[in-house]
Amino acid sequence: MRCARTACVAATLLACACAGVAPTQNRTEQQASALNHRAARAYEQGDYRRAAALYGQALRLNTAVENPEGIAVNALSLARAHQAGGDAAAAHRVLDGLLAEGPLPAERRAEAQARKTQLYLDANDAARALEWSDKALASCTGCAARPAIQTLRGRAALAAGNPAAALDWAGKALAATGDAGERANALRLSGEAQLARGEHQAALAPLGQALELDRGLGLPARIFLDLMALGSAQLQSGNRTGARDYFSRARSVSTAAGDDAGARAAARAIEGL
To answer: What is the spatial distance between Cα 118 and Cα 113, in angstroms, rounded to a whole number?
Structure first.
């Protein structure tokens, strides 16, 4: 399992956009839908290069018959696959092309803008992440993805060194959603923002809640993030034994999930105690 850390934390935005086979689809659109589903399976198996190739084929077929929804779905999925595979430049090119295509439904535009936010967060470019998360919020005034985008906006604020704003956005996201995955993301953001303020005791409750939700959902990448944050909270409080326990658990989770980068990060945290 290999993914950029921000690519592991948003449930609504990062759910694979799979094209269903509607009765009114023509033959070309049906072929594109089949490719989309094959790409989704490749993505879930961690074969991001194959997923990108298949999404690209589906995108070209939809473009050939001017199917706007198919174009949007497969462009967003292609950008996601490029991001997961570590090719940020290719992901930006796909998203820029989609945004330049012409009128897009507000929710699809917001998804594209949010994906660019995630890419800039991965690149540690907080200023651009703030810019694009604001654009996504403006596009998504009442769409289903708004809580996820609010959490993303909070992550941009945290990256920019403003934990108070990050806490505020986490609170807005929590108030706006009952989805377990999005609540876990917002709770994790809340805990990390409190850690950034030096409030390690206050961080424990939201981080613990996020861990329970993510364990219930069976999401190793997010469990890893929760455990690492809890280890940081213990370390900030001076409890090195507790920190070691959480970091060791994070290493075990990452190793079992095949996340070599996560396992190395946890090992470095343990070595630094």
So the answer is: 9
For residues 257 and 231, is the Cβ–Cβ distance under 8 A?
Answer: no
Query: How many structural domains comprise the chain?
Result: 1
Residue numbers of the domain that contains 113: 1-126
**Do 157 and 169 form a contact (C-beta atoms < 8 A)?**
yes
Residue 231 lies in a domain: no
Torsion angle of the four alpha carbons 241, 244, 250, 253, in this order, in degrees rounded to the nearest 10: -90
- What CATH number does the domain containing 48 carry? 1.25.40.10
Q: In the predicted model, what is the mean pLDDT of the chain?
A: 92
Spatial contact of 67 and 29, defined as CB atoms under 8 Å apart? yes
8 falls within a domain: yes
Residue closest to 112 by CA, chosen among 152, 161, 60:
152
Each residue of 112-169: pLDDT tens digit? 999 999 999 999 999 999 999 999 999 999 899 999 999 999 999 999 999 999 999 9
25, part of any domain: yes
The Cα 110–Cα 119 span in angstroms is: 14
**271 located within any domain:** no
Please report which confidence band the pLDDT of residue 93 belongs to, taking 50, 70 and 90 as the band edges: very high
3-state secondary structure 46-96: CCHHHHHHHHHHHHHHHHHCCCHHHHHHHHHHHHHHHHHCCCHHHHHHHHH
Question: CB under 8 Å to 135, separation ≥6 — which residues?
Answer: 113
Quote the distance between the C-alpha of residue 236 and its chain's center: 26
